[in-house]
Amino acid sequence: MARRKLILATGNLDKVVEMKEILKDLPVDIFSKKDLELEEFEVVEDGKTLEENAMKKAMALKEKVEGIIIADDTGLFVKALNGAPGVYSARYGGIEHDYIKNNNKLLEELKNVPIDKREAYFKTVIVVILEDGSSFVVEGVCEGAIGFELKGDNGFGYDPLFIPKGYDKSFGELGLDIKNKISHRAKALEKLKEQLYKILKDDAHEDICSK
Fold this sequence. Notes:
InterPro entries: dITP/XTP_pyrophosphatase, ITPase-like_fam, RdgB/HAM1. It comes from Keratinibaculum paraultunense. There is one protein chain. By secondary structure, this protein is of the alpha/beta class. It has one domain (about 5-210): Maf protein. It has 6 helices and 7 strands. The protein has helices at about 15-25, 50-60, 100-110, 170-175, 175-180, 185-210; strands at about 5-10, 30, 70-80, 85, 120-130, 135-145, 160-165. Strands 1, 2, 3, 4, 5, 6 and 7 form a 7-stranded mixed β-sheet that branches. Helix 1 crosses helix 6 (about 185-210) and helix 5 packs across helix 6. The chain is globular and about 55 Å long. The mean pLDDT is about 90.
């Protein structure tokens, strides 16, 4: 199976590490925006849904480079806050995408909320645009709760606050090995791998048959 070029439409290097690790078994060469010297290329994420934002990023990057484009958007949805921060998760504490400010604002908003009312879930939506312009969408959800304080030095974003269902430790404490098996992004990427592997395999079969 011939290797293909896959470009991740994110400037978040923490996400890049996660995604490269989970997708490493695919017959593709994976590049980030930084690898292609496109760090300055940004898209305004003003969509009303995660899918709108992901599609907007994917389509914009498709105009710049050739290959398979993968763009994602992730949100943290807290029940007690009527779904906030949601699509604004990355800039909840300000436009500078500061992890500490985001976490501190979330803790402040939930200051008087008891543990049984701190339910939340992470959702990741991934848009894939193939070389011919066709596309598909996958998503993953991880349910859990918001802790009362930051715990753990692993991960990024809200990981030190988010306690996945079935665990008593935050993503920040559990580490990347466990997170990459149970997280929202891991679930979405596993679906992506399954679909993309089938596409790559079918394409390779067609190439052989056409020779």
